[in-house]
Amino acid sequence: MHNEAEIIVNAIESLRQEGNIFKDYIFPIASAFFTSLLGAGIAYKSFRYQEDIKIEKEKMDIANKWTLLVDEARSNLISIKQNYHGKLTENPIQRAAAIPTILFTAKPIVENYSQLSFLVPKQSSDEYPRWSQIPRIRAMIHNYNYVQELWLKRNEIERPIREKIVQQYSTKAFVNVSPEQIFECVGEANFALLVDLTEKVIALTDDLLVESDDFLASFPVYAKTHINSERLKRYGSVLTYSNNGNEKLLAMLQKSPNTDYSSVMALFGATTDQLKQRYSTGYE
Q1: Is 135 helix (H, G, I), strand (E, B) or coil?
Q2: What's the gap between Cα 5 and its chain centre?
Q3: 199 closest CA partner among 132, 278, 102
Q4: Is 245 left (phi over 0), alpha (psi -120 to 50) or beta?
Q5: CA atoms within 13 A on the CB side of 207
Q6: Which candidate, 22, 162, 146, places its Cα nearest to that of 77?
């Protein structure tokens, strides 16, 4: 009987699995660790993907915002130039008389240029693409804000001069009054200031129209090279621009006639070369 009981006990003991440290302890812990690690990796990758999409969206929004800003600025300059386009000669006195007071609302552009840093090439080079140069963009915007101020200042000077001349020579148009009559009516100093402002706004408006048109044509193309559009197919696209052969628009991009300063050398006490330098905008 005792032997039978011992045999039964041994049989039961043999059925028991011997303890396994790896299976009982290490494997469950390792399995949980690697599962957590895999989950964290997937979550991190998903987070990075969403962050990358967010960054690309921001870059596209910034590029489109600047395209729209410059397009609006160019439209404002065209609206101003339409008031005198085709009416100017080479004579600075005629030019000052031909442009009336131009009513418009000045809208200076105030933006954070550091937003455009993604356009700057990461590798140094002797030559950089034109619209990768933030200082050039900043200069264009600064000059646009400045030319608006000049036009407003010219309006302040031009209106009272025109009113005095019309009152004194009511039977004659402003443009038909001789320089001597103008000087006698409003004084040489006042009219010299009007001529000076007129030449500045004509030159800067012309050059900014060309500069902004080049920006609109080239900036979106360059910006595209720094935006991963493949990830934004469902979001939108980079705005592009074309003149589409618009003859009226192309006519506005043509420069005004060059000025012959010989007739105002005495008025300004300067040579023609000095006056040309004075009205140089830096875009030549």
Answers
A1: helix
A2: 97
A3: 278
A4: left
A5: 19
A6: 146
Strands (E) located in the chain: none
Q: Is 53 exposed, middle or buried (0-12, 13-18, 19+ CB in 10 A)?
A: middle
221 CA to centre of own chain = 13
* Every domain of the chain and the residues it spans: 55-278
At 61-101, the pLDDT tens digits run 999 999 999 999 999 999 999 999 999 999 999 999 999 99
pLDDT at site 15: 47
Instruction: Read off the tokens for 185.
Output: 């009516």
Spatial distance between the Cα atoms of 231 and 55, rounded to a whole number of angstroms:
11
User: Which two tokens mark 112?
Assistant: 């954070």
In the block, tokens 């840093």 appear at 117
At residue 219, φ and ψ (nearest 5 deg) are -60, -50
The encoded tokens of residue 261 equal 């300063």
Nearest to 182 by CA among 195, 199, 200: 195
Helix, strand, or coil (residue 260): coil
